[in-house]
Amino acid sequence: MLIRRRKIKKLSDDIRRIIDGQYIDLRDNNESVFSALKNDIHTLAYHKKEQFDALQRDQHVMMDMLANISHQLKTPLTSMTIMADLLDDAPLEKRTEFSRHIKAGLARMDWLVSSLLKMAKLDAGAIVFAAEQIPACELINMALEPLQVLLEVKNQQVSISADTKITCDIRWTAEALTNVLKNASEYSPEGGEIHVVSGENPICAWVSVTDSGLGMNSTQMAGLFKRFEGSRSEQGYGIGLPLALAIMRGQNGDVEVANENTGAMFTLKVYR
Length: 272
Known about the structure:
- The chain has two domains: 1-126, Helix Hairpins (Orthogonal Bundle); 132-271, Heat Shock Protein 90 (2-Layer Sandwich), CATH 3.30.565.10.
- It has eight helices and seven strands.
- The protein is 55% helix and 17% strand.
- The protein is an alpha+beta fold.
- A five-stranded mixed sheet has the order 2-4-5-7-6, with helices on one face.
- The protein is flat, with a radius of gyration of 27 Å.
- The protein has helices spanning 5-19, 33-87, 92-123, 136-144, 148-153, 170-186, 218-222, 240-249; strands at 132-135, 157-161, 165-168, 193-200, 204-210, 253-260, 263-271.
- The N and C termini lie far apart (59 Å).
- A hairpin with a 2-residue loop joins β6 (253-260) and β7.
């Protein structure tokens, strides 16, 4: 089969235009070998363009995330720097107050950085979940352990009703549940009660956390799991609930939210 020189020249020119970013449809419906070659080149060019577009989208997402992280870290750092500069000349009472605020700021920044690293590992698919069947009460108690001081300060009680078993990675699922419980504590009043219940059905095993706050409107509920956006608290970063969701979805699960008479209820599910 002879292929005219001008056809090869046109195909070469079209390929160069595609390389320069132009969209050119090389396909035709002829049954020749040359047409098959053009169709294959078109398919290859299309896939490469899809990959390039996806890479650009990822870069924009990464730039937005870095800007958000920078903002989240800059605010407490600026505040702590000002207080540190004032420590030397401040009276004793103010020194104590500044020291307390600096310690609290450092603790919050430590939590933020740790959570961001965990989120990055989940996004990169670098986490291998080790599923095992565990009593729900063991999972709940493990999740509550880091929050004991917060609960005592706010004089909040946690009622637990858990008599089922859940198949999950206990360490990572406890991390997710801790973030949900922390959220429940933040939006429950001082002296309030948080209800934690576990159960199962033919579809999934679950743990629900219900706070004693005021619940949420539809706008708040829609943005709950958006990174850096979903926090309803001035002290929040908007990363705890997205992290919880990423952990649960990473092990064939989910997090659902609903308004109850007593407040908001978050349910962590692991599907069978």
